[in-house]
Every structure is written in C-alpha cells, then in structure tokens.
Specification:
By secondary structure, the protein is an alpha+beta fold. It contains 15 helices and 17 strands.
C-alpha cells in the first residue's frame, strides 16, 4: 500500500485516489490523523494521512491509494474505523466529540470505544455496510452458540451457521469474501476443541492480510503456540537453533519441517510472534531473542515479515540500559524549545510528572535538595504531562525550582516512547545520551547511591577511552 500527502480536492478522483469530504462542526479547527495498523503483533500503527478541518467544520481532501485499506482515527474517546478503496469518494460522518479526561489520556490501559465511521453517500457504503451487518449477526450467533460449539465440539452446528450466514450475506467483493472466510474459520475453531491443525492449514492457504479478521484468527490460533504447538521433534530442533543464535532462515526452515506449515510468510510470523511472547514471558534469554530478531529484520522472505521483525527488535531493545534515550524537543515554561541533546555532556535525571499528583509534588521537594547539592554533576529535567500548558506555567510560577520543566504537548508520543505506566517515572541518562538506569529509582529511594555508582563507572570508562596526556620533561 502506498499513500502520500493529501491535497485539497480539485475535481473528480482518479482510480488511484480517495476523497474524504463533509462537515464536522464539533471538530472544527482540528486536524484528524488517519492511521493503519502496520504490525498486529506488537501492535503498532502508522500515520497515513492528516486531514485538516477548517474553522467552519468543513473538510475536503484527496490522497493517493494503491489498494483497499483498513484505517482508523482516534477521535477523543472514540476510535473510528473504515475500509477505503481507490477511486471512491466518501462523505464522512464523525461521532459526537467527547474529549478524554487527563486520567484517561495518561492511562496506558485506556481502551477506546470502537465505532464505524459513517458514510453519507450511498454509492460508497456497500463494503463497510456489509462487513458491519455481517459482523453483528456473526458475533450474535457465535456468542449464542459458543458453549454448545465448544463443549460438544459441534462441527455440524458450525457448518450450519456458516451456510446460513454465507447464503444471507452474498455481497460479491474480494475484501468481504476474505472477511467471511476468516470469520468462518474462527467459527470452526470454536468447535474444534483446540484441535487447530486443520484450521492452521486452511489459514496457510490464504495470503497474509493486514486486516482485523486475519489477525483475530492468527492471535487465537498462535497465542502460546511457540514452541509447543509444533511436532515434538520440531520443538526440540527449533529451541536448540534459537539458543545457539542460529539464523532466522534456518529456524524457519526447521519449523517448515512440520507438514502443517507450507506458507513461509505465515511460518515466519508464527516464529516472530513466539519470540516476542518469549521475550516478555522470560522463557528465552533477552539477548538471544534480540539477536534472532535483528537477523530476521534482514533476512525474512517478505517486506512485511522484515518490517514486523524490525518493529519487534526496536520495541524489545528500546529503553534497555545502554541503548540511546528517545530524543525530544519540547517547550519549557518560558515557551522556548529545549531538546534532550541540549543536555549532552552531563548526566540527566529525567522525570515525568503531573502537577496535581501528590506523589509528584512530594518528589519535587526532594529533587530541589538534589539540585542544590548535585547540579555540577547532574541535570534534572522534568516533563509535565498535564493536558494544559498553563498548568505547567502556574506550577513553576508558584514554586522556585531552578531546573527545566518541559511540556509534553508538542510530542504526545513521548509517553509511549518512554513506556509510561504511572507517574512519577524516572530515567537516568549518561553524558553520551544513553540510558544508565531504566527505569531509575525515585528520589526518596536509593537514587543517590545508584547515581554515585553510575557516575564513578562512567568516569573510569571515560578515562580509559580518553587517558590524560602525560607531560614529559623533554617537551
């Protein structure tokens, strides 16, 4: 799929373009970012197009699209999705705007309410309407019959439900047909009593697709699959090859010795999914997994497998001590831009706070004492996660803290890059810009002792790399 920057609409769309237009007064003055899921295992999404809505609430934008795509936009508390096709125009209808609260925005486990984007023009509705109506009835029948299907392994009932749905929803469209096929495989899986090898074989006969129905089935089949879902002899060989930091190609070759796996791309994704699970389950050493993922990013058989392996490597290696600290450029309380690179040459005690959080307020008092006694060796940088910039201004004006306070607003992705699970959070960054303590202890914990160890270790390492020049009596 290839998408490029959009432009104001000027005439009819070509067969390789899409047009969005309409009115959304509740969103006036905003820019809506549409994204697509590029990695369903992590998961990870990528921006596709940014659509400005003018001060009257009107929008009209066309952009290039090579093939049908499933995209979404986060609209306050809602996540609104739509399938789009090249050569079509969509008069979009947005849900009423409901802003997320500070607590919801900072909650890493916040779940958007999933809604479908409305389409006002009838000629462009068919694909989305059929998927929505099919899913509603499929989900109802699946839930209503789940116990009977699973408990009795009632494959006859699964076949009957499939025939009824297939007859009723006969809309002819390649995306819809794939969606139905994948949904029916999930239905059969419910009746298979975990005997999933036939379902996996059928999935292997289909092309890998970046669409929700494919990955619902994939996750259902392959959660916890690696390595014990493979035949016994294959399990042992795969585990040994991974332990020996074998090449990704050789690991996939062994996996395809199981007659179940004939689709190499699917096999690669199953292995990648298993390694990703093993990283967080601590069942395989982290360095081993990182080495295999790094190799997979270079040698996988398809662009999708390579990209997903690279995403996983970046995710699993991110924030590890010794890795580069994620950079940023943010506004300070005087509305001047400051970057992480501005602090190179000194240790940085980076912390994330909310000004109304009592624990954060208490830590600021301790940090004030640190700053007075350690400012020659240590920079303190506080990133404020309050929604409003004015909250940071009011906080710094009401207190006499001398170090930099920066507002996250110009780079909201920072909370994901630093994996913020709670506030306050702390990291120690060395003078070269790499993470020394990740996460770092809070000020009232043993931070001073840990910092002294890191400082001394860095000084010794630096002296070894750059020994002082000795003076000679002959010069």
């Amino acid at each position: 799929m290839l998408l490029i920057n959009g432009s104001a609409y000027a005439g009819s769309v070509t067969e390789k373009e899409v047009r969005f237009y309409g009115d959304a007064p509740a969103y006036k003055g905003l820019s809506i970012v549409f994204e697509s899921v590029s990695n369903y295992i992590i998961p990870l999404s990528s921006p596709i197009i940014t659509m400005p809505i003018n001060d009257e609430g009107h929008f009209d934008l066309s952009f290039a699209l090579e093939e049908p795509a499933y995209i979404f936009a986060d609209l306050g508390r809602f996540r609104a999705s739509i399938y789009i096709e090249p050569g079509k125009e969509y008069e979009l209808v947005f849900p009423p705007f409901e802003a997320r609260s500070d607590a919801e925005r900072l909650n890493p486990h916040f779940s958007f309410e999933e809604v479908a984007l409305g389409i006002a023009n009838p000629e462009s509705r068919d694909l989305n309407r059929n998927i929505i109506e099919f899913d509603a009835e499929f989900d109802y029948l699946h839930a209503q019959n789940a116990i009977r299907l699973f408990t009795n392994s009632d494959t006859a009932l699964a076949a009957k439900l499939e025939q009824e749905l297939d007859r009723k929803y006969s809309y002819s469209h390649p995306i819809f047909e794939q969606h139905k096929t994948l949904s029916f495989l999930r239905l059969r899986q419910t009746a298979s009593r975990q005997q999933n090898r036939d379902i996996i074989a059928e999935l292997g006969s289909l092309p890998v697709r970046l669409m929700p129905a494919y990955w619902k089935l994939f996750n259902s089949l392959f959660k916890g699959f690696y390595p014990y879902g493979f035949k016994d002899s294959i399990q042992t060989a795969i585990s040994g090859q991974v332990s020996n930091h074998g090449s990704f190609d050789s690991i996939v070759d062994i996996a395809m010795g199981d007659t179940l796996f004939r689709n190499r791309e699917l096999t690669e994704l199953v292995i990648l999914n298993g390694l990703y699970e093993a990283f967080y389950n601590k069942t395989v050493p982290e360095n081993t997994i990182l080495a295999v993922l790094q190799n997979a990013a270079l040698t996988s058989s398809t662009p999708l497998s390579k990209a997903m392996a690279l995403d996983m490597y970046a995710k699993t290696s991110m924030l590890r001590p010794g890795s580069e600290a994620p950079g940023f450029s943010l506004l300070n309380s005087k509305r001047r831009e400051k970057s992480l690179s501005d602090y190179r040459g000194k240790f940085v005690y980076l912390n994330f706070i909310h000004t109304e959080n009592y624990a954060c307020q208490k830590d600021m008092l301790i940090l004030e004492q640190f700053y007075k006694s350690m400012r020659r060796e240590l920079e303190i940088v506080t990133i404020v996660m309050d929604e409003d910039f004015e909250a940071m201004e009011n906080f710094t004006e009401a207190n006499s803290y001398k170090w930099d306070f920066l507002h996250f607003g110009s780079y909201p992705q920072l909370s994901e890059l630093y994996n913020l699970q709670a506030l306050p959070s702390y990291y120690l960054i060395n003078p070269e810009g790499t993470l020394s303590l990740s996460p770092a202890p809070a000020p009232e914990e043993n931070f001073q002792e840990r910092f002294a160890e890191q400082y001394q270790s860095f000084r010794i390492r630096d002296l070894r790399k750059n020994p002082p020049k000795e003076k000679s009596i002959f010069r």
